Amino acid sequence: MLLAAAxxxxxxxxxxxxxxxxxxxxxxxxxxxxxxxxxxxxxEPDAKAPVWQPAWLPEGWTLEYGAARDGVWPETxxxxxxxxxxxxxxxxxxxxxxxxxWMDFEDGKTAKKELxxxxxxxxxxxxxxxxxxxxxxxxxxxxxxxxxxSLTQAEIExxxxxxxxxxxxxxxxxxxxxPAQDGEIxxxxxxxxxxxxxxxxxxxxxxxxxxxxxxxxxxxxxxxVRGVPARLWLGDxxxxxxxxxxxxxxxTAEIPTEKTWSTxxxxxxxxxxxxxxxxxxxxxxxxxxxxxSVETGRAASWPAQPAANPAxxxxxxxxxxxxxxxxxxxxxxxxxxxVIVQADGTVENVPNCSExxxxxxxxxx
Length: 365
Description:
By secondary structure, the protein is mainly beta. The protein has 3 helices and 29 strands. It has helices spanning 153-161, 284-292, 353-356; strands at 10-11, 21-22, 26-31, 34-39, 52-54, 62-69, 75-82, 85-92, 98-102, 112-117, 120-127, 130-136, 142-148, 163-165, 173-175, 185-191, 194-199, 204-209, 221-225, 228-233, 242-245, 252-255, 261-267, 274-280, 294-296, 311-316, 329-333, 338-342, 347-350. The protein has a 7-stranded antiparallel sheet, with helices on one face. A 7-stranded antiparallel sheet has the order 16-17-18-24-23-20-19, with helices on one face. The longest helix has 9 residues, at 153-161. The chain is globular and about 55 Å long.
């Protein structure tokens, strides 16, 4: 699954036990308080991930992010939130991928119910504040809804029954200006209903979607972007993000957090496309200048998807190191690997957090 620190799904590598049920392309069984899914059909190396998305969400739920992965494990993933509650929808095209979801079943009770979703047999589990709903369609696509919170079974079923395929690409929008003088802004996700760019330093994220996007929980300032009402949350310049150090070069980098991100959001009244720009500790003037610079370009392509360019984190000189531009390096991480890109373009691989600190993960940001 394409999930990082805020992951809901987790990859599971133990040997498969005898499955309790066989599906056309996917097997599912429960073991050690977790639900396991295992694909049985290898995908082609150039397989494309189909994009489906819920068309209905309960009031107050907004889109946190979307992601897609093509290739031997084709998958799309959407994550929504409402306050501290989360809801994710993943679609796994036929492959030999395997993953699990921990449910904390009590005393071996699986609490499974058999349902029908869009005419297909479905399995529903619910235990305390966790719920999982999964079904496979006629093409072998596995749909998995995972929820942590207070939604009822009826609400989760309504979300599932509203899921529909997206094909039309969104218009191509770009930031015409950014303060990233020593770094570039890359397009890292292009899929129907969702496009995102990131880069820096300073760390910048620009994304837009066909559904309402999640916003910071603190009170915003009301501003305008090209005459359209917008909301602005400024990051605290006195706060410090998460500091990580490269064991290769000794350089350190600051990963932005909820307290350091400046966020600007608005919705185009003509297209209902929601825009969100984030910058690490950027000023009001800078955020508004970036928003005013948004321009249209060529139509976003689909199903062809460009290579992902990971989000960067601001370079912070290590103690005692020089601060000249010649020695400046930018960090990048995409949830699978981490690299340092030096000023001359040299790419230097660095270990993941799990390699440096076994059993630990970076805090969710």
